[in-house]
User: Fold these one by one.
Assistant:
Number 1:
Amino acid sequence: MTMASLAPALDIAAAGMPQQILSVPMQNKYQCQHCSGVLRKPVQAPCGHRFCAHCHKFLTSSGPKPCEACQTEEIFEAEISILKSSNAFPDNAARREIEGLPASCPSEGCNWKGIVKDYEVQHEGKCKYERIPCKACHLPVLRSELERHSDRECEERTLNCKYCKASFSFRDIKAHDEVCQKFPIQCKDCGKKKIPREKFPEHSRSCGKSKVSCPFSVLGCRTVVENEKQTEHEHSSISEHLRLLLDRLCQIQQLAEDPGEWQEDSGLGLYRAPEEKETPVSGVGQTTSLEQKTTALENIVCVLNREVERSSFTLEAFSRQHRLDQEKIENLANKIRQMERTLTLRDIQLTETEQKVQELEFCTYDGVFVWKITDFARRRQEALAGRSPAMFSPAFFSSKYGYKMCLRLYLNGDGTGRGTHLSLFFVVMKGKYDALLKWPFSQKVTLMLLDQNNREHIIDAFRPDVNSSSFQRPINEMNIASGCPLFCPLAKLAGKSSYLRDDTIFIKAIVDLTGL
């Protein structure tokens, strides 16, 4: 039975699948007679040949068309070998047979296997090993790498200039940078950076470090100076410039008195035209003309002499002002140095005061001391980096007039505990009342890392070795520290440790006061 049209729900968006997906030999009944691929949503024409629904629609889109397969096989029949959009029907039997065929992904590197139906529904268009042409450069790229290729590697990808916002392809980026009017340029003279190209000519004219020729170069001055020093050069070289000008005027006067011809190569830009050479001039007229020119030159020289005198006075005034300015600068520099010394002394006094206040704040006089250490993570990183391997606690006392002591902590360990343990040491310090105390120090010392759940504190205790220099009467500010290099494994402070809460740990020291 011939159907009037294709079923409305039929998906005809794609042509046949590649033959390479089949794990069985390709047979003619599985092949589209137009695209030669594995039939996708097959339809059958009245002549019996099968086509992909997409291919049949394409073939009949411009009207009825003879079946090329019938012509090739020489079985063309006028009544049934004409393809029309209305005379093909979905071949569900062929579709079910093809969808059940074993298949595998043809993409190199992909291990997917299944049946044709699963390939079409689940894998096709999703395989990360499939190579897809880049829309910009048309090179085949793995699907999994297409986004990275389009964003970072494609030579034809479109970029926007971050300076002028113009669009161009990646391969033209260098060419665009050469002409972009917003592109930042660095001035080689003054070193200023990020000058837009369109404003660089204006900067070059005003740049104080750009090199310019002296305005008197036309008279022979060969000095080339920085733009900001041009005025200074003109002031310091007034005499030289006037000498050059006077030399030039003398040359002009000499030429004026010379009855010979003026030559263009004299360097003065003077030239007598040929008709002037041929014009007869009376001796009296020539003499009068030369006298007038001489008088004019003498007047110019007088004016120049006055200018030299005025410039000399100006230079002398500048010199006096310069000396005064230097004296003021020296006085100000002395005042600044005095203020810096005063500030340094104040800083030292302030530091000492802060230290005393801190000692008073944390100081105890009963031999028991709790040391709160905050910012543990930051301090540990500083210890790992070697910037602050050890830290000292504030001082504490056995009594108001007793032994002065403190703790020394290595957050990354010390000695045998380096890198694996917290190392905690007890330090006897030099106190004001040491002369009244019993030496060597011999009191039992207990060191604790407090469990903030109040359950299992880490405790270590020791009695001082009275023969050790660490417990003799201090000569310097502190004796050599003595204690526990393997006090606490660092592993106990990792994760959700009850010893480390809110980036804070607590260490407690107890000095046995028995016998004091």
Number 2:
Amino acid sequence: MRTAHTASAARAARAAAAAGLAAAALAGTVLLGASPAAADGSPGPSAGAEEEAAPTEAGTTFRTATAIRQEQRATAAASLGDYLYWTFPAGAGQRPTVRATVTLPPAASRHGSSTWQLDLFDGLRRRQACASGDSTKRASADAESVTLSCTLRTVRPWSEAWSNDPLPGAYYLRLTAVDLPERDLGLPVGAEVEATARDAGGAQAHGGELTAPLLPVTRAGGIVDPSGTGASAPDADEAEDADEAADGDEAEDAAGDGRAPSQPAALAEPDGGWYGGWWSDRWAWTAAGGVLAALAGVAGHTLARGPRRPGA
């Protein structure tokens, strides 16, 4: 009888060990398989996009902001005291980071230190706070350059109208000197900016979705259909009313109604789309958890059922 119990216990131990090894192998397979799938959902820039020349100038207002792509390094020549604007796309689930480097005039031509500031605004021109990074930095009188950075919170696919959460669409980058000697105004400077974004992962996923991403408003030509099905030609009165609408008023009205401004401009869509793909690492963890639970149930049943009598 003791031999039967011993054999049964040995079989149960072997079954539990086999179940544990199988669970570990399957979980590893699922988790390792998540990386290619996630990578497929966010492919790198195409060869044609890489060959496209990077912008070499910056806008001076929101309306004239120079459009750049993610991971594209843009440069501009400007003067001390100028406001420099760029705009770039960011989709839901991404955490954008912007870096800017300013090449200062020779120290011999400057009359003191200067303070530089990097500001980020969403498609409604609401200023977004930096979650990390040095968005304001003081350059000493003998510094050759100054580098600033700003990392935003994770872009959400949807939020309440009263919320100031980052939303999918265009983001404006503004670079300027906020404090400098008056005699230094007009001295030449060089600026280099780059916007990147990383996937925040399934832990930051949220429900809901905007009707359309928050994109800049176009004035020239016809009104662009936000659904992307084509452009409709407005009549003379509608065109006149659209031209007379102030940009600030339109953005404020859109924010109050919780909707996106109409007439989106042709800003490059980020890799993976404005709202990301269907894949999330939550799928991998859910599948791995299900497999582990099933194998644990089989092992527990094997241990709890006890020895089987011959002929039973």
Number 3:
Amino acid sequence: ETRVWGCSCSPQRGALQLPWPGAVPAGGQVRGHAAGGAPAKPRSYWQYLRRHVLPPPRPPYQRVCQAGDPVLRLAAAAVEPARVASPEVQSLVRALVRVMRRLPCLGLSAPQLGVPLRVFVAEFPERLHLAHSPSLREARQMAPFPLKVFVNPAMRVLDSRLVSFPEGCESVAGFAACVPRYQAVQVSGLNEAGEAVSWQASGWAARILQHEMDHLQGILYIDKMESRTFVNTRWMELNE
């Protein structure tokens, strides 16, 4: 996701049938703490009881997966063109749009909802565009655009000049950093109806497209950021 600041259970419990290849069950962990962080916070009694009464949620989730979730580091699989019209893919697209608009954010990829497929949505409505000052909109080349849905997208660089501006991501919630991105790109793929679509974008729209394309390769903006610009977006509030 780009910010401007920028499984069904079988009758035998524990045998998970994941509806998407490579999906990770809710609460799934990579054992061994390979990243060197602190161990996961233990579940409360009520969380433990709930998990033994209700099945775990299945992707696409209604919340965004956070950095550390293995699904965010997978290279997403292509969707068979014949499956674009399937109930599963249509439900995925609806979930992406619903969560994107609820947050709100400007783009969201399928891996961020726990589904490792090459699908993303993007939208920059007028109300979010006007929430920024005219000077900032001009400096960052922001322009509103309607909902875009891409299935199996491929990207071509149209202008290789690198421009660095702050970005955030709902999968790295509460943080932001400057990220260099190409000035203009073209993304081609299928829309939610299975029709071929292509979009040439520059400025902020191009940044959004590159951010979402990275998600489909298991890449987060923190992999490309200018590390000394990395900030907690609430640092001033926390110092008060």
Number 4:
Amino acid sequence: MPKYYIPSKIAQHRVAVIALYRALLARCSSAPLPIKDQTSLRNAIRNKFRQNRKIQSPFQLGLTFRAGYETLDHLDALKAGNAASAGYLSSLIATLPRRTISPPPIWRRPPPETTPSRNPQACLPDDKKVLNVRPRVQLPPGKKRRVPILSATGGVPFLRLTRPQPPSLSRMLRQKLARREDLFLRRVEFKYYWTPIAKQEDEWDALLRDECGFRDERGEGSWMQAVNDTIEVTWESMSKEYEQAREKGRQMLEIVDRETGLALQEGQTVFRGRRRRPLWVLKPEKTKKKNGNKAKA
């Protein structure tokens, strides 16, 4: 067991301090003092508690508690009409330093630290987009070819080129996935929530038409027709996005295949999957022939 405890971390000490602090502030608000004196005394109490919150000496803590309880007793006596307590508090407020009676500083949460991106460009121009640039037939001298990896998240294909993932790619994936989710939820909502309501509205319109003779003179059509049109438009948008994703996936797969062929022609070994546990390894033709000649020898 430790021989010494930090008072601010002991529950009993914290409860006593908070109780004294709240009692002093409550008595200041209800004491029969001028508003200016109430404000000065309240600010002095706040500042003193803020200054003494890290005191660890038992002797200093005892003096601080004694001063606080004496002030609390004088405030209670002042409320009861004691003239001596009124004179004591008036002299106390008059002797307080100016910096003590000013309101304590307001703590504001610091803004989050954002690390600026190395590439502040929000989106690549058309002449630098991956589908328009790849595959690169010729590389700068001394630069090794990196075969992109075809990946997909939520049915959205993309090419993984470097790590960490570029912010523009992350933003594009978030937007596409959010768009797909919105379309799916809209279709579910109209199919399972608005369809029963539309059927009941059509039944009510039919009842009014048969019983009361009301007619739809504006020609707006039935409720079910509007709901079905919305479901159909939503499904067409979803199908269009799925088809675009499939087409882009085919283009990206073609880029990966051509980049792989160029890398093999340059004498590189291409790994599929993780390097430590690859799914398969593609080696250039020269390496295969050399290995075959060694095996024959």
